[in-house]
Design brief:
Helix 4 crosses helix 6 and helix 9 packs across helix 11. The protein has a 3-stranded mixed β-sheet with strand order 1-2-3. It has 3 domains: 134 residues, MgtE N-terminal fold, CATH 1.25.60; 106 residues, CBS-domain; 170 residues, Tetracycline Repressor, domain 2, CATH 1.10.357. It is mainly α. Helix 13 links the parallel strand 1 and strand 2. It is built from 23 helices and 6 strands. It is 65% helix and 6% strand.
Length: 452
């Protein structure tokens, strides 16, 4: 096992050796190397090779393992990879997957192939997947799996345990038994521990928990993720508009949603306008980055034009130009810090808005402390370096003012964007930096103009 661990560090030497085995069709080396290796490790390895080579490796693996690997591929890679498969081959590994995973993969296939694959699925899975395909991918209905364990409210404990044994054949993991009435409406759930320790003659209704959290089929996936995070749920039942139990969502499905949201916000905060990855095409990466870079250029031109208005001051005291980068950098950093904290708070499902005035008062005191500390530091450094007491005082006053204004702008901008339905993460990237650069220069040169 130690040997395998070293190999799957994916060193260049190992990849070259594996490539050689593929070129020579060394079946023995490939099967021995991949024996007892986790699906996630094989997935990582196959990213290094093209679709035909990866399929050659996959064909040597058990069908259950193939299904797990296909399921765990990222969407773009999987779409490209499945082009080298025949419909009957796709059918074979989809029959090994849960209904939600099978539906996700079917949605990625061309329509003709999708119809061929769907018609070849096992009857029960085909019925489940057909129902799931009715929903948009980004709502609870498109996120849920049909496989679950349910019991009727009038059953006894012993009936419930017997039914679990039957239903569990189609459910790989379950955390509770959902309780429904005769109309299939969700009325509660029973913990497995309670089933085990309860008297066999008791009714399920007597030991079930009725106050449970559920989500509707039309609920946005981001809302589902927030609910599961807030209540620390491993799974959540899904009901239709009539309140009938139609599926469940497990934590592994929601992790993907949370990861996608985090990636999207990180890209927005970095000034990237589209969902791109490093290995996407040059044009796609350029297109995603260019809009905010253009806004930054426009902001820079505005700064240059604004500085031109104070040409007389610059000609009279050239030293004031030395501190322009200091003012801009400090204002930008303060603005990003303030906006990032607000964006983080707004993303927290437990966030409680404490009121605008209370928040602004807190921001004011934090900004005052930061501004005073930085101003005193800069004043002392300027006196030592330039021996200009009056200029040092003006720079320090301007710096303190910029910290105050940047803190307020950084706090208000994401709150306003969120209030009007825009992603507040927009306020934590180039947007806030460009605004604060212009704001910083305005405050600085006005201070210089009036005090020097």
């Amino acid at each position: 096992m130690q040997h395998l661990h070293i190999e799957f560090e994916l060193t260049k030497e190992f990849i070259d050796r594996f490539q050689q085995a593929l070129d020579e069709h060394d079946h023995v080396f490939i099967t021995e190397t991949l024996q007892d290796v986790k699906p996630a490790d094989i997935t990582t390895l196959l990213y290094e090779f093209n679709s035909e080579e990866s399929k050659y490796v996959m064909d040597m693996l058990p069908i259950e393992l193939q299904a797990e690997i296909i399921r765990d591929l990222d969407t773009e890679t999987r779409q490209r990879f499945l082009k080298v498969y025949l419909p009957k081959e796709i059918i074979n590994f989809l029959n090994q997957l849960a209904s939600d995973d099978a539906a996700d993969i079917l949605n990625e296939l061309p329509i003709k192939v999708r119809e061929q694959v769907l018609s070849g699925l096992e009857t029960e899975l085909r019925t489940q997947v057909t129902e799931l395909l009715r929903y948009e991918p980004n709502v609870a209905g498109g996120l849920m799996a049909k496989e679950l364990i349910k019991a009727y409210v009038h059953w006894t404990v012993v009936q419930c345990v017997e039914e679990i044994r039957k239903q569990a054949e189609n459910v790989s993991k379950f955390y509770a038994v959902y309780v429904v009435d005769d109309q299939e409406k969700l009325v509660g759930k029973v913990a497995l521990q309670d089933l085990i320790i309860s008297d066999a003659r008791k009714r399920v209704a007597d030991i079930s928990e009725h106050d449970i959290v559920s989500v509707e089929t039309y609920m946005e996936d981001s809302e589902v993720a927030e609910i599961m995070q807030k209540y620390d749920l491993e799974s959540v039942p899904v009901v239709n508009v009539q309140g009938q139990l139609v599926g469940r969502i497990t934590i592994d499905d929601v992790v993907d949603v949370i990861t996608e949201q985090a990636d999207e916000e990180r890209q927005i905060m970095a000034g990237i306008s589209e969902d791109v990855e490093e290995d996407d095409s040059v044009w796609r990466n350029t297109r995603a980055r260019l809009p905010w870079l253009l806004i930054g250029i426009f902001g820079g031109l505005m700064n240059a034009k604004f500085m031109g208005l104070f040409e007389a001051e610059l000609a009279r005291i050239t030293a004031i130009a030395f501190f322009t980068p200091l003012i801009q950098a400090t204002g930008g950093n303060v603005g990003i810090q303030s906006s990032s904290l607000i964006v983080q708070s707004l993303a927290n499902p437990d966030f409680v808005d404490e009121g605008l005035w209370n928040r602004l008062v807190k921001v004011f005191f934090v900004a005052i402390l930061n501004g005073l500390f930085l101003s005193i530091l800069v004043f002392g450094a300027n006196v030592l370096l330039f021996q200009e007491y009056e200029l040092s005082m003006v720079v320090s006053i301007a710096l303190c003012s910029v910290v105050l204004f940047a803190s307020f702008i950084g706090t208000l901008t994401p709150l306003i964007l969120n209030r009007f339905g825009f992603n507040p993460a927009l306020a934590a990237g180039p947007f806030i930096t460009t605004i604060n650069d212009l704001l910083g220069l305005t405050v600085y040169f006005l201070t210089v103009h009036f005090l020097l």
